[in-house]
Amino acid sequence: MIRLAILGAFLVSTAIAGVFAFPTSHLSVSFLDVGQGDAILIQGPTGVQVLVDGGVNQAVLRQLGRELPFYDRSIDAVIATHSDQDHIGGLRDVVERYSVEYFFESGAQSNTSAERVLHTALEKKGVSRTLARKGMRMLLGGGAYIDILFPDRDVSGLETNTASIVARVVYGDAEFLLTGDSPQSIERFLVASVGDTLESDVLKAGHHGSKTSSSLEFVRTVRPQYVVISAGKDNSYGHPHQEVIDTIRSVGATILGTHTHGTVKFFSDGRRVWR
User: Fold this and answer.
1) How far apart are alpha carbons 30 and 146 in whole angstroms?
2) Which residues form the domain of 181?
3) Nearest to 172 by CA among 195, 201, 196
4) What is the distance between the alpha carbons of residues 184 and 177, in angstroms, rounded to a whole number?
5) Dihedral over Cα of 215, 218, 223, 225: its sign
6) C-alpha count within 13 angstroms, C-beta hemisphere, residue 50
7) pLDDT at position 14
8) Are 267 and 273 in contact (CB under 8 A)?
9) Tens digit of each residue's pLDDT (9 = 90 or more) over 36-46
10) Model pTM score
């Protein structure tokens, strides 16, 4: 049995039958190459699988097929950091192809076709929807977990990027900070409110390496060894912006981009992080 628990103002603890999930003693975090978008597959030491975002289209299915055994058709939880097309466009296909137990969202409303078809798919499959809020903890087994750092409030009236879920994956001394498309205003808020818990080995650069994110103060606070930029090759936005590249280099972090490296995968045994 695999256990998945959410801790916050309430506690929900549910046993999940991980039919095809096998313990490895290692945590793996894969930043999938889905073009101009985000999709991150987290696999805990005891086999719990969490997908954070799903890219813009069905490319996420191809990448999941490369990461998971052909017979594995279950994902314990999906986290949609926010409702923009390049983060949820492929999630309808994920929900239809895989058995998903939990779905977490920020609560910001975009009322786009991508959001509507995703919600319809979730309803048809009977997948419960939960608002992610600061203080929730998702247990990945073996001592690994995901903490939600933001939102800490009702974000239904906020712009979708500003409402992005910020999550921190922790396994012993190894940490991964996932920021969705959070802009610098949220980065400043996080530094001021939870700055002492932001330090992480790996940082996913906000908004695909846009200069609207990854401020120098934030990157210095996180102190990453690696910064992953999830962006499409030759994308029309010019991501990653040179300002962000310069900021990351100034703190001595190694830059890894899906636009140049393809899927970027890390492993951890709770003591160190390696590729």
Assistant:
1) 15
2) 2-7+25-269
3) 201
4) 15
5) negative
6) 32
7) 33
8) yes
9) 999 999 999 99
10) 0.92
What CATH number corresponds to the domain at position 72? 3.60.15.10
Residue 259 has pLDDT above 80, yes or no: yes
CA nearest 177: which of 210, 147, 141, 152? 147
User: Measured at the alpha carbon of residue 25, what is the angle toward residues 228 and 139, in degrees to the nearest 5?
Assistant: 70
**Three-state SS for 18?**
coil
Q: Where are the alpha helices (DSSP H) in the chain?
A: 59-67, 85-88, 91-97, 113-125, 184-194, 216-222, 242-250, 258-261
pLDDT tens digits, one per residue of 184-234: 999 999 999 999 899 999 999 999 999 999 999 999 999 999 999 999 999
Q: What angle do CA 249, 255, 261 make, to 5 degrees?
A: 155
Residue 23's pLDDT is: 62
Indicate the number of domains in the chain.
1
User: 275 in a domain, yes or no?
Assistant: no
Residue 15 lies in a domain: no
Average pLDDT, integer, range 60-70 = 96
The reply to whether 14 falls in a domain is: no
**Residue 97: Cβ-neighbour burial (10 angstroms; 0-12, 13-18, 19+):** middle
Residue 166 resides in a domain: yes
Q: What is the pLDDT of residue 209?
A: 96
**Among residues 99, 104, 2, which one has the least CA distance to residue 45?**
2
Please provide the average confidence, as pLDDT, over all residues in the chain.
92
Q: What is the pLDDT of residue 12?
A: 34
Contact of 29 with 61, CB cutoff 8 Å: no
DSSP structural state of residue 270:
S
Question: Residue by residue, what is the 3-state secondary structure of 61-127?
Answer: HHHHHHHCCCCCCEEEEEEECCCCHHHHCCHHHHHHHCEEEEEEECCCCCCCHHHHHHHHHHHHHCC
**pLDDT tens digits along 98-109:** 999 999 999 998
